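Re-run with default settings, no changes from the original entry. Doing this only to confirm the output is reproducible before filing.
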Amino acid sequence: MAALLGCRGLLGAFRPALCGRRSVLVTHTRGKKRWMRSYMMVMERIKKLEGPAPPKPRSQQPNWDYHAEVEAFGHRLQENFNLDLLKTAFINHCYITAEESRRQDLKLDKESIKLNLKDNQDLSAKGSLFVTAYLQDCFSHAHPNLPDDGIEALISYVTGPQVVCHVARNLAVEDLTLSAEFPVPQEILQSTFFAVVGALLQSNGTEKANLFIRDFLITQLIGKDLFEMWDIINPMGLLVEELKKRNVPLPEPRLTRQSGSGTVLPVYFVGLYSDKQLIAEGPGETVLAAEEEAARVALRKIYGYTENRRPWDYSSPTREPQTVEALSS
């Protein structure tokens, strides 16, 4: 009790000093200035008038180390590249020409103008040849009933600029490509990707290159229809040829079902009969379109490229193609 009274007395001694202090007034300030809204509106109008800014390559942006990025490229893909070959794979001939002309405009010495760099033309040629040979053997083994024209159509789709550039951009090949233009043209990006395959082939051999092509190129066929990649003008004529080769009676188209024939959205179902058996049926907005679709359905069954076919077996060990063995030797 005596202790409590002592504390009370001590606080009473300091009470005049505490009461004499001034109170602090706290004011709230705006997070944004008043001129910010009008300024941002003017900047948005200028941006709409001038259009978007031209894209900048990654090398011209902050926090960029080209040599570190090239080395990290192989680790990202879990591939052991030879760094000299990998750096050569990203150098295009147009970049060397543009860089030498730029140095010449700066009036540098002849020794400084000349670049001691090797372009990727040899690696690109080897990689392109290897990819085509490997895909030829893989597709021939996976689809033995598919004719040569169909195999070539699949190879052309997989190695075309649209698919290859899509894969290359997702693997950050475009950011590392040394080219005179940006964005990198599709032809240059496609040749650079093949050069990367050629560098992998010379660094780790055919087995790693086979797995690289299988994982990044063959997987682009998932969800694709055969005739999206293979353009056939006359499917009924091709079906007749295939049935003649197999000594099967010629198909007879018959209208099996129809709906809304008097409306703006009619649908017809045409069935193809061979030896009094239904071999295929397809829909269409007209009878002719339904007949062509039925012919395509029959061709898918003959070639073994139907929607419910067995998917590609990625777990099986890779087979060493004969064409690849000949190229590597």
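The radius of gyration is 34 Å. Strands lie at 252-259, 267-274, 277-284.
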